[in-house]
């Protein structure tokens, strides 16, 4: 659950950051079309919120929120470094991270 | 007098609070970050404990050892091995003596271990809130004021940062000043919730020192009574302890089984009052509770020491909402409750904070280089900032490495061994502060970073000379507590090495005299 929280933070931030023209260009080479920009925002914010529940589920509400705040920082930090050095990895990682984090939960 | 705009005023405030306290805050933040792994560092610095492998029978072996060594004690405490320690810590006091005897026991044999004297991670813990070498109250006041000014610097920094949302994810690596500003902004903004939480809760921990008036007006000068009411302990029974009459204690195993039925995490510690009498009481405490509200103290179970019958526990006084809030915030700062993943998240956030301060300090010099170059002179103040930057940002990690090396190399029987370890740290740091005086800014950076890299990489290698501590055995035994520290040291060595190498590759113009004007920048 802890890792799911981190993965969701990463994916949520990735969506939000791709909804910004500068970063969309870094990854795709063009500005984001209006429709896609809106879609990415609509995906990004709820994903960040869902991450709180993953953390709270794992550790209870009080510690969960603290953990979530830490995970937001670290997810955004990873994203910033990827954008600077390996922008092509952002989309594949954002799509695969949450399912990968769910995998261990299936095999318990 | 020139009237400044709101943003410029904040920029001025941010520059000068950041600069004047930057070096101190860097030291506080770095040592504080290490404290998230305080116990792990202490364990790593006591290699004699690395061969101690706990199993299900460890508690009973400690029990037997105490019955042999301290049958007449008034009270025993047994700290069992947990997620963060491999050995058993026991202590007891003999009747009529204030001083407690303490021993470390091997979890596999129950025999006492000869552990080298060291303060371990505790040194960083004490240093980060009361510094060292000065009266501790002075140290606390200094740290306190620095923390308040850190809050000021954070808030003014947010105001100064024009494009906090547009540039949320922005980092443009390269040679220019821009990259440093991006890095400073990114480390600050990304970990902003963490920074605010850690500085604010840090201040709360000092609350009774900063604002004692409420406490003093109600309790006059009896602050001890205030704290005992706020954090109550169980009343000590007034009736005098009966004579030791060798009444045997009950068997521990059934009590442990009972406790483990209640607590999935298991038992953390055992306390026995008046062993060897018919009034003996055994109290078991849960291993690290996870509620922030009680600062992770965990639940307790109490048994009659001779019959093993369960006893009632006096109810804990409920402190109300204000105390709960205090406990939650300070608990977050101290990270008492946290599991290992959580520790890593906070550790990385702490490193981000340390990086924020370091990049800010480097920026201060960089921003003023073009002007210096134009005028062709280096003001004394700027040179001083350069020297302090290298000597602190790179010098403190070197000094910490020296502390670890001293822990391994100083003779075991040395008198005042603990003090000597700490002296080594400060001698190394002093040398690191002198060294940049003799070298150019850039050479000093490269040399100290390279030295840090060598020192950190050498520590895991040095461990090869110890039987139970090197990576080959710790990884084979799955002893991640010790192996994790070695691996972290190697990672740090790689990081410092990379930084040094990058600097050598950088054309010297980018460091010494930037000719290219950076694009439009926020006023930092």
Question: How would you concisely characterize the structure shown here?
Answer:
The complex is a heterodimer of chains A (108) and B (524). By secondary structure, chain A is mainly alpha-helical.
Overall strand count of chain A: 0
Oligomeric organization of the protein chains? heterodimer
Q: Give me the side-by-side strand order of the main sheet of chain B.
A: 3-2-1-4-5-6-7
Shape of chain B: globular
- Supply the helix-strand structural class of chain A: mainly alpha
What's the helix-strand series of chain B? HHHEEEHHHHHHHHEEEEHHHHHHHH
Transmembrane segments (chain A): 38-56, 63-83, 89-107
InterPro entries (chain A): DUF3325
Organism (chain A): Azotobacter vinelandii (strain DJ / ATCC BAA-1303)
Pfam families (chain A): DUF3325
Quick tags:
heterodimer, A: mainly alpha, elongated, B: 524 residues, alpha+beta, 7 strands, globular
What does this 3D model show about the protein?
The complex is a heterodimer of chains A (108) and B (524). Helix content of chain A is 86%, strand content 0%. Chain A is mainly α and 108 residues long. Chain A has helices spanning 2-18, 21-28, 34-59, 61-85, 90-106. Chain A has one domain (2-106). In chain A, α3 crosses α4. By secondary structure, chain B is an alpha+beta fold. A seven-stranded antiparallel beta sheet of chain B has the order 3-2-1-4-5-6-7, with helices on one face. In chain B, α1 packs across α5 (136-160) and α16 packs antiparallel against α18 (480-505). Chain B has helices spanning 6-35, 38-44, 58-69, 122-130, 136-160, 177-190, 192-205, 207-210, 213-219, 223-230, 252-262, 320-334, 340-375, 380-409, 417-438, 441-462, 471-476, 480-505, 508-512, and strands at residues 75-79, 88-93, 101-105, 267-273, 281-286, 300-304, 310-311. Helix content of chain B is 58%, strand content 7%. Chain B folds into two domains: 6-47 and 122-190 and 346-512, no CATH class; 53-112 and 233-316, no CATH class. The A-B interface holds A 2-3, 13, 17, 20, 22-23, 59-60, 62-63, 66-67, 69-74, 76-77, 79-81, 83-85 and B 166, 168-173, 186-187, 190-194, 197, 290-293, 328, 332, 337-339, 341-342, 345-346, 348-349, 352. Chain A: The chain crosses the membrane at residues 38-56, 63-83, 89-107. Chain A: It comes from Azotobacter vinelandii (strain DJ / ATCC BAA-1303). Chain A: Keywords: Membrane, Transmembrane, Transmembrane helix.
């Amino acid at each position: 659950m802890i890792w799911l929280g981190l993965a969701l933070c990463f994916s949520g931030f990735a969506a939000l950051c791709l909804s910004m023209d500068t970063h969309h260009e870094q990854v795709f080479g063009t500005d984001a079309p209006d429709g896609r920009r809106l879609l990415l925002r609509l995906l990004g914010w709820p994903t960040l919120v869902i991450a709180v529940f993953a953390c709270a589920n794992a550790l209870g509400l009080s510690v969960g929120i603290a953990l979530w705040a830490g995970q937001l920082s670290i997810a955004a930090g990873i994203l910033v470094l990827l954008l600077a050095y390996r922008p092509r990895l952002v989309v594949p990682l954002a799509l695969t991270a949450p399912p990968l984090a769910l995998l261990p939960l299936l095999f318990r | 007098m020139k009237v400044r705009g709101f943003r410029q005023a904040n920029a001025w405030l941010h520059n000068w609070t950041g600069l004047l306290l930057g070096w101190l805050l860097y030291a506080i933040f770095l040592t504080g970050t290490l404290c998230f792994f305080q116990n792990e560092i202490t364990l790593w610095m006591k290699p004699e404990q690395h061969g101690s492998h706990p199993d299900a029978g460890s508690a009973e072996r400690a029990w037997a050892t105490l019955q042999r060594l301290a049958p007449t004690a008034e009270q025993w405490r047994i700290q069992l091995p947990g997620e963060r320690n491999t050995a058993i810590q026991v202590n007891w006091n003999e009747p009529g003596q204030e001083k407690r005897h303490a021993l470390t026991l091997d979890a596999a044999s129950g025999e006492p271990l000869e552990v080298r004297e060291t303060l371990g991670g505790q040194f960083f813990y004490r240093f980060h809130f009361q510094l060292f070498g000065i009266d501790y109250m002075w140290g606390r006041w200094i740290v306190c004021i620095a923390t308040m000014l850190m809050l000021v610097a954070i808030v003014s920094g947010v105001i100064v940062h024009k494009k906090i949302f547009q540039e949320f994810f922005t980092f443009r690596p390269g040679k220019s000043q821009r990259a440093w500003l991006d890095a400073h902004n990114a480390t600050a903004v990304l970990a902003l919730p963490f920074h605010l939480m850690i500085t604010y809760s840090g201040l709360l921990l000092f609350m009774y020192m900063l604002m004692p008036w409420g406490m003093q007006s109600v309790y006059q000068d009896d602050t001890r009574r205030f704290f005992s009411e706020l954090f109550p302990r169980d009343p000590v029974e007034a009736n005098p302890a009966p004579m030791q009459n060798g009444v045997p204690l009950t068997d521990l195993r059934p009590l442990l089984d009972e406790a483990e039925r209640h607590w999935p995490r298991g038992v953390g510690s055992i306390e026995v009052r008046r062993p060897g009498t018919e009034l003996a009481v055994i109290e078991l405490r849960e291993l690290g509770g996870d509620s922030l509200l009680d600062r992770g103290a965990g639940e307790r179970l109490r048994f009659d020491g001779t019959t093993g019958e369960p006893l009632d526990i006096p109810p804990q006084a409920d402190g109300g909402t204000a105390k709960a809030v205090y406990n939650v915030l300070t608990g977050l700062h101290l990270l008492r409750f946290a599991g290992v993943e959580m520790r890593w998240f906070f550790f990385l956030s702490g490193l981000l904070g340390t990086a924020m301060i370091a990049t800010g300090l480097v920026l201060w010099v960089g921003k003023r280089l073009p002007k210096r170059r134009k005028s062709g002179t280096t003001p004394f103040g700027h040179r001083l900032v350069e020297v302090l930057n290298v000597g602190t940002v790179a010098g403190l990690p070197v000094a910490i490495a020296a502390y670890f090396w001293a822990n391994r190399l100083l003779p075991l029987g040395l008198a005042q061994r603990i003090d000597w370890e700490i002296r080594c740290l400060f001698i190394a740091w002093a040398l690191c502060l002198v060294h940049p005086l003799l070298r150019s800014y850039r050479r000093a950076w490269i040399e100290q970073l390279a030295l840090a890299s060598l020192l950190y990489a050498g520590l895991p290698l040095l461990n090869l000379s110890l039987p139970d501590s090197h990576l080959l055995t710790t990884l084979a035994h799955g002893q991640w507590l010790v192996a994790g520290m070695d691996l972290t040291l190697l990672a740090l060595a790689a990081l410092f090495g990379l930084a040094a190498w990058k600097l050598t590759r950088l054309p010297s113009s980018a460091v010494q005299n930037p000719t290219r004007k950076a694009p439009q920048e926020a006023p930092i």
